[in-house]
Amino acid sequence: MTSGTTTSSVSVVIDASVAIALCAKEADKLANAEAKMKEYAKNGCAFYAPGVIIAECLFVFCNKLAAGKLTAAEHNSAVLNLATLMMQIQPPPTGDKSLVKRAEEIRGALACKRSADGIYLALAEELQRAANTEVVTFDGGMRAQAAACSLSPPVVVLPTI
């Protein structure tokens, strides 16, 4: 598994792809997501995410339900799992509003579908000022976006099975 620097002084920005894997129990991602989150927790890392994580997760859960990839019971469980997970994740210290301008700068000339990624990366950049910070995701495009902007917080891309 790809791993970043995990020490007790690390803040971790959780991307929606990881939350979805955990909450919807995605077979090709769950084991790696659980292992990485346990590693972070063992090392005393603090977890953060912007508010958009909730909308992204609920949207994906709904699409999975509509496509027959989740039963009604599994969908309900995923939603409840998300509510539980969010109790362990802190919001941006200065609020989501502080991320808007920088997120759009990070998105730059990239496609609109990268807009939400910019919010996660802007949060990581903000947190990096106070502590070592990583972003954890299953989205390799997020790492490429961060590299294109020369952002310093590392993006840890977890592999799928």
CATH homolog superfamily of the domain at 10-18 and 27-51 and 90-157 = 5'-nuclease
Total of helices: 7
Query: What is the CATH topology of the domain at 10-18 and 27-51 and 90-157?
Result: Rossmann fold
The CATH top-level class label of the domain at 10-18 and 27-51 and 90-157: Alpha Beta
Structural class: alpha/beta
- Cα end-to-end separation: 10 Å
Per CATH, the architecture of the domain at 10-18 and 27-51 and 90-157 is 3-Layer(aba) Sandwich
Portion of residues in beta strands equals: 5-15%
Radius of gyration: 15 Å
Biggest β-sheet, characterized?
Answer: 4 strands, parallel
Q: If you average the pLDDT, what whole number results?
A: 92
Total strands: the figure is: 4
The shape, in one word, is globular
Give helix and strand order, one letter per element, not per position.
Answer: EHHEHHHHEHE
Strand order of the largest sheet: 2-1-3-4
Task: Offer a concise description of the structure.
This protein is α/β, with parallel strands linked by helices and about 160 residues long. It is built from 7 helices and 4 strands; from the N terminus they run βααβααααβαβ.
Could you walk me through the main structural features you see in this protein, from its secondary elements to its overall organization?
With 161 residues, the protein is α/β, with parallel strands linked by helices. It has a domain at 10-18 and 27-51 and 90-157: Rossmann fold (3-Layer(aba) Sandwich). It is 51% helix and 11% strand. It is built from seven helices and four strands. The chain has helices at 16-23, 30-42, 52-66, 72-86, 100-107, 115-128, 140-148; strands spanning 10-14, 46-48, 132-137, 155-157. The chain has a four-stranded parallel β-sheet. Helix 7 links the parallel strand 3 (132-137) and strand 4. Helix 1 (16-23) crosses helix 4 (72-86), helix 3 packs antiparallel against helix 4 (72-86) and helix 5 (100-107) crosses helix 6. The N and C termini lie close together (10 Å). Mean pLDDT is 92; it is low at 1-8.
